Structures are given as structure tokens and as C-alpha cells.
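Example 3.2
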Amino acid sequence: MKEKKQRLFFALSPDSSSDDFQHLARLSAQCGIFGRPVITDNLHITLAFLGMVTDEQAAKVVATAGQLTPPPAFSLNLDTLGYWKRSKVIWVAPDKPPQALLTLAQQLKALALHCGLEQESRPYKPHVTLAKSVAKRPEPLPQVGKIDFHFNSFGLYISKPVSHNGRQGVQYLQLGKWPLGSQ
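Structure, written as C-alpha cells:
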């Protein structure tokens, strides 16, 4: 019998009750006219994509994550809007990511490798995907404005297939949450 696998990733989830999150959601809807907007509940910053993971591997990931000495909590300014032609997405990202964010992503990538999960070799580029299936770069891209978030924890998420308004999609559900260090 083939072992069941689940698609997992570590991520930062912005505070959905904040004004900045509402601004982020409006920006996603605005960018969505060029393709398919990311549903509001799925807006996040991926730290490490783990891929298809068995229950045994997931248990090891959770146990190992609990042993990390994470960097301190940090603030993040999303101020740069862009488009990736290969993946056909519009994204918003920090022009200058804080070192704590980069350190956390590196720790989680090392954790994944330690747990036997392959990781991409390309450099980490923190971002929030706003719209998918965008055929070409819109000109001009919408203005970002000021979007600031403070993060004091990170989470492990599962990507679950769902049907939304007759279309297939995914829903991200948090499986675990860990605090960042104190500043």
C-alpha cells in the first residue's frame, strides 16, 4: 500500500485583523484582475517548502522545529511589487529583508534537509504571492503603498485541495506554531 503524503511548508502568516493586512488583501484583489487572486486566507510568506511529506517525516519535522533556537521577532516592510514570468505570479516583497527573516528561512531549510527532505538550491526570496496565472507583466504594476507587519511566530502549514466557487484550489491550514525569540 502506498503511504499517504501531505504537502507541507513553513510560513509566516500576517495578522489578518490589521489594517495592513486589509491593504494587502485589497492589493491581491487589484492584482487578481490580471490573473487569479490569491484568496485572503492563503496570503503568507513561505519560509521553507517541504514538499510531499509522510506522516513519519512530518512528526520528525514538528519535533525538530520545537528544538530550534529561532532568531528574534522582527518587523517587515512589504514595499516592492514584481512579476515572475516563469511562475506567472505577481508578488509583493521587502526591498531589504531583515536578517532575522533570512536566518529563520535558513534554519528551516537546514531543518528540512536534516529530516531528509529535498530543498531548492536557488536563493531565498521572501515574498507574498498576490495573483497567479498572470500571462504577462502588467504595465504599470499597481502601487504598493505602505504595508508593515510584525512577526513573533512562524508556523507549519498543510496545503489541502478544496473546491471554491466551482474552481479547484487549495486551503492552507496551520498544523503547528512556534514563537520567535525575544528582541
